[in-house]
Amino acid sequence: MAALSGAVALVCLWAPLLPAAEARYRADIWIRDPFILPVAETQTYYMVFCHEWVQIKDGTMELVQLKDDLSGVVGEPKTLFRASEAKWARPMFFAKDSYVTDGPFLYRTKTGRLLMIWSSFGEKHTYTVGISYSTTGKVAGPWKQSDEPLLAIDGGHGMIFKTFDGRLVMPIHQPNQGGTIRARLFELEDVGETLHIEREIPFEKPHPN
C-alpha cells in the first residue's frame, strides 16, 4: 500500500485553531511538510511541500498555488528541485537509492534574495539543513543548491523567526533519533546573499520553586 499524506489549513482567530473551510489539500496523494507562502506582488498564496522519497525515491520539493480563501489548490503542482541536486545530500543508509526532502521554509534576505532552508541526510547519514536559492527571486524558481550545508549536526526541520529584539533565529530538532530529540536554537546572520550560523542560543534553566 502506498503511503498517503495530506495537509489541512487552520485559521487562528485568537484561539482555538479552526479549519479554513474544507481545506484538505491532496490528502489522497503526497503532500508532506507544507509551507504556505503569501506572495505580496501578486496577492497570491502558494504552498511549498515535499513529495516523499517513499513514493518516488528521489524526494522533490513541489509548489502549488492555493485558492484565495485557502480552501483548495489551483492547478497542478510544479517540481522545484530534487533532493539529489544538492552536492551535500546523501542517500539514506537503509534505502541506498533514496533521497529525502524535508521541512521547507522560505526566507527573503535583506538584499531581496529568496532562499529556502530544507533538510535531508548528509555526510555520515546525519540529518542536515541546506540552503537553496531562487535565481529569479520568484517562488517558481529556477532553484539552485548551495554547495555547502547550513548546519550538519544530525538535526534539521528548521524554521526562521525574528525575536522581539530583532535577532534572526532558526529552531531545529536534534538529534534525529527516537526519544532523544530536543529543540535547539541557532542565531543566524543575514549577509545578503545567504545565511550564516552565528552561535547557538542556550536554553535558560528554569528557576527552582
Report on the architecture of this protein:
The chain has a domain at 19-156: 5 Propeller (Tachylectin-2, Chain A), CATH 2.115.10.20. The chain has one helix and 14 strands, in the order ββββαββββββββββ. The chain has one helix at residues 53-56; strands at residues 7-12, 17-25, 32-39, 44-51, 60-66, 73-82, 102-108, 114-121, 127-134, 143-145, 161-162, 168-174, 182-190, 195-201. The strands form four sheets. A four-stranded antiparallel sheet has the order 3-4-5-6. Strands 7-8-9-10 form a four-stranded antiparallel sheet, with no helix packed on it. A hairpin with a 4-residue loop joins strand 3 (32-39) and strand 4 (44-51). The longest helix has 4 residues, at 53-56. The model is unreliable at 10-18 and 26-31 (pLDDT under 50).
